[in-house]
Amino acid sequence: MDGFKFTDDQKLALKLIGGMVKNLLLFGGSRSGKTLILLFSIVLRAIKAPGSRHAVFRLHTNSAHQAVQLDTFPKLMKMCFPGIEYKGNTQDGFVKLRNGSEIWFCGLNNKQRAEKILGREFSTVYFNECSEISYPAVTTAMTRLAQKIKILGTEELLPNKAYFDCNPPGKSHWSYKLFIQKAEPENNTALLFPDYYDSMLMNPQNNRENLAEGYIEITLAELPERQRQRFLEGNWLDDMEGALWKREMIDRFRIINAPEFQRVVIGVDPAVTATPGSDETGIVVAGRDRKGEYHILSDVSLKGTPVEWARAVEHEYKRWNADRVICETNNGGDLVAANLRNVCRDISCKSVNAARGKIIRAEPIAALYELGKVHHVGRFPKLEDQLCGYNPALNQSSPDRLDALVWALSELSGGSSECRMILA
To answer: Is this model's pTM higher than 0.85 or not?
Structure first.
């Protein structure tokens, strides 16, 4: 980031931040400078009001620490605030300026840690990559936007503000409803104070001078169409015509807390190779409750070696006390199950072979979603993008995360009567 220059977009964003708006969303393509300008604003506010507190939230604590606290933040301070001293506390996840102001970094998926941090009041809350964060988690954190603190040398209070950023997901996401449609996401009623909400598009083309050569033309422009629309053009996505899954099907039955389960299984769709250009290995955890309904609990799909994905499966197997791993063996045969047992000898693994066409396997599972029998426990953006972007008439092969989900739910449902009824 040496030699970084504020772009025209970032300068315009600063004008919005300095105005009357209370809640601001910066959305757009990847590497467009959204995170940096919002962090810049938070540091300015922290300097302006000694003793103030500010929070930067992401879905995962590790991402909040590694990507923001230990990477972007120190680069920003070196580049824009070289004379401002601060001390970092990696263990507790905050930095403290010399004037007593604190900036906290937290993942909202860690309930114990989030509750500890949310016991404080803040002047600024910032939801980084908010497309991955659930709306209930946002509304809970917003209740802590309540610190009263004076601006240095005045009797004026620092106005409380909330910042958001994202690469825009589908139009059914709460961020689109809240900031673009100006509607309450939970009931679609008009916002009582729409003028408190504003948004701005920022795309990487306008940040070209600060990006590595070829990032736009090669890395982003070569993405598949829907990903290119999101990460290069910064467009909000409609459901794909002909897709088996619709976002409304997922959003309507989404829940926050999981019930007790009769069974938990892990679906695995292993990649054939482990090179930079290889597919991911799909790893999706699902459970069936006592009412006979199904819950998606985790998606830890990754691109890695056989040992790396086997260790990820082992971790989820122990974490969820799973009954069995359902593993597709079309390409790896018995080696797939053997790879898992080399990492975890006691793992229960069932090998399945995709003898039928993918659409035949996927349709009954999509039918369960239509019936409201499947609940996502939280949000799984990459998995949900694959589900809602898969049209079997257009796609030659189904994506890895989708396949892993289908194997897991097929095992739990066992060709249920609900599937047969809706497909009859």
So the answer is: no
